[in-house]
Design a protein that fits this description.
The chain is built from 11 helices and no strands. Helix 2 runs parallel beside helix 5. Helices cover 78% and strands 0% of the residues. The protein is globular.
Length: 186
């Protein structure tokens, strides 16, 4: 708690001295969005001021997508389905803009796939997770999600193959190990 507050002060000062730096803005945005659970503060102070100048910057669009994904999850958990649907659509649009500006942005494919998965658009989710897995050979989560979607389709052979790929990338991945065992993969 104390170290986080000290880091926040440090990065705010760095941003005050040079507002064009991405590193402090990204750090502060992530802290407010993920650790403090304050998506509106994250957006207002660390995203909106830069938005008017760099509308197609892939990192800003990625962060905007993360903001809407966080808002989607809150609205969904509180039963506000119309608001959740709006945030899901806005997240997809933001991730798509990030990908238009930077087509090899694996994390944007993964996160857009996650939104599609959460709203039940499994074909689109599968395409995005496969693209993310291809673009980032170190990420174990994308092939795991590919396996989950093939498992939903009852395509055990492809699910096993994807889960094995996830384990190749991260041998100590309990969810993938369990999925392989549950499917009785050879």
């Amino acid at each position: 708690q104390g170290k986080r507050n000290e880091a926040i002060r440090y990065w705010k000062e760095a941003l005050r001295r040079d507002s064009t730096q991405e590193k402090p803005r990204t750090f502060l945005y992530d802290v407010y969005l993920y650790e403090l659970g304050q998506p509106d503060t994250a957006r207002r102070y660390f995203l909106d001021p830069y938005w008017k100048f760099e509308r197609f910057h892939p990192l800003l669009n990625f962060q905007l997508g993360n903001y809407h994904l966080a808002k989607y999850e809150v609205a969904q958990s509180q039963g506000r389905t119309r608001e959740a649907a709006t945030h899901a659509l806005q997240a997809v649009e933001a991730y798509t803009r990030a990908l238009l500006a930077h087509p090899s942005y694996a994390k944007a494919y993964y996160n857009r796939g996650l939104v599609y998965f959460k709203v039940g658009k499994y074909d689109r989710a599968l395409a995005d997770f496969e693209q993310a897995a291809q673009l980032d050979p170190r990420d174990e989560k994308a092939p795991f999600m590919v396996g989950s979607l093939y498992e939903l389709r009852k395509d055990t052979a492809r699910a096993c193959q994807a889960y094995r790929q996830a384990l190749t990338r991260k041998p100590d991945f309990p969810e993938a190990q369990k999925a392989l065992a549950d499917l009785h993969c050879p």
